[in-house]
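Hi R.,

Here's the chain you asked about this morning:
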Amino acid sequence: MHTLLVAANPDPGSLTHHVLGRLEAALQPGSVEIADLSEERFDPRFTPADRRAYHEGGNYPADVMAEHRRLERATDLVLVFPVYWWSMPALLKGWIDRVFVNGWAFEHSPASGLRPKLQHLTTHLLPIAGDDSGAYERHGYESALRTQIEHGIVDYCGSRRGRTAFIYESEQLSPEATVRGVDRAVRSISEALQARLAG
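And the predicted structure, written out as tokens:
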């Protein structure tokens, strides 16, 4: 097993990066790789070259091919991200737009329809939310986020759904509650990954 942790937050002192470090430590001595999209200056902009590659199902830009190689090494992908406007940050969305493309993550044509291609991968989500779980439940935010990512991206590409573990109230003035939330989420994801390794 090889786990790729992908994080999208421009602040290296953020809770996102703290969680990333905790998760990496919890998965030791397993094989773990970190993709810090902000630190690596990944360009999330979908360019004309990306558009051509999408339609052709190949001839991808070099930076996209590098991400493909990382994902091909991985058995598990964990997306660690702050929730912005009830969704993922633009940097992470741009990474998915450019990397999870036709010809690699799936194949689609009018003649043959959809053929998912990421069956080797299990995808886990660790969203870091500023609001409390009650607000997410009342307004349907958690359901909407899960539908968008779990169904709209993970299922579409044929990846297996892994564990989704929210950290709520990340911006509240209760460090104890934040610590408990981080502990729960890291334990949930690491236990899911260790169970796969044992199985």
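The two ends are 11 Å apart (CA to CA).

Let me know if you need anything else.
M.
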